[in-house]
Amino acid sequence: MTSTAPGLRETKKQQTRQEISDTATRLFIERGFESTTIAEIAAAARVAKKTVTNYFPRKEDLALDHHERFVAVLAEAADLRGDREPVLTAVRRRFHSAAAAHSADAGFSGPDFSRMLADSPTLTARIRELHDLREHALAAVLPGDELLRRAAAAQFAAAYRLLFDRIQELQLSGASPRHLTATVTTEADRIFDLLEPALGDYGVRDASA
Predict the structure, then answer these.
(1) Cα–Cα distance between 29 and 27 in angstroms, integer?
(2) How does pLDDT run across 72-126, given as a tens digit for each residue?
(3) Environment class of residue 8 by beta-carbon count within 10 Å: exposed (0-12), middle (13-18) or buried (19+)?
(4) Between vectors from CA 124 to CA 24 and to CA 57, what angle results, nearest 5°?
(5) Taking 60 as the threshold, does the pLDDT of residue 209 lie above it?
(6) Helix (H), strand (E) at residue 9
(7) Has this prediction a pTM greater than 0.85?
(8) Under DSSP, is residue 116 helix (H, G, I), strand (E, B) or coil?
(9) What are the phi and psi torsion angles at 23 (to 5°)?
(10) How far apart are CA 147 and CA 90, in angstroms?
């Protein structure tokens, strides 16, 4: 009995966190991010205002509640690449998987969410910050000296940033999910192909090492 209690408590915490985030996102979409207060979110979620801020110290993270995953995806793709596999191959494959799954960390969030982001200077700035953090996280796991790591990370992160922005544009234009996926998948390959001459062999591990 006692051994299952921590798991149940953690599950309840995750449920509460998700309910708060879902409520906040609904209000942000309906009223605008800047116009919605923490007090209004707490009232709608039927929790104390302090509960909201305990789970989400930054208001932006109520809307961008998967920000840790967003930051980590490129570094994870590079770090988990196979032997003899270039980093470019790993990050390309990661994007294709995200596009097929319509993953939120790639930018697939629907037109209402994209409009909320576009209409909010605060959220737009936070997205830029998260892109920068993702680039830094990637650089930390790449091989080579600092200059090479930073240069390579900047190129890979720029590709993902461009594709994220492209997904937002297409969602705002009313593109169907099928058209959206087909378009960004094709455009992603064009972008990654541009990186091949400089980075096509970068990061290949020596399988015998």
Answers:
(1) 5
(2) 999 999 999 988 999 999 999 999 999 999 999 999 999 999 999 999 999 999 9
(3) exposed
(4) 45
(5) no
(6) helix 5-31
(7) yes
(8) helix
(9) -65, -45
(10) 21
Distance between CA 154 and CA 164 in Å, rounded? Answer: 15
Q: Where are the domains of the chain?
A: 8-57, 65-200
At 132, the amino acid letter reads: D
Match domain 8-57 to its CATH number in 3.90.470.10, 3.90.199.10, 3.40.50.620, 1.10.10.60: 1.10.10.60
SS3 per-residue string spanning 148-197: HHHHHHHHHHHHHHHHHHHHHHHHHCCCCHHHHHHHHHHHHHHHHHHHHH
Say how many residues make up the chain: 209
Q: Which tokens is 157 given?
A: 């992160």
- Phi–psi pair at 46, nearest 5 degrees: 60, 45
Do residues 93 and 77 touch, judged by C-beta distance below 8 A? yes
Torsion of CA 90, 95, 99, 101, to 10 degrees: 50
What's the one-letter identity of residue 62?
L
CA distances (Å), origin 12, targets 9, 60, 85, 102, 123: 5, 23, 41, 27, 28
Residue 96 structure tokens? 């294709």
Q: How far apart are CA 190 and CA 137, in angstroms?
A: 25
Tokens (6 digits) for 25:
């996102």
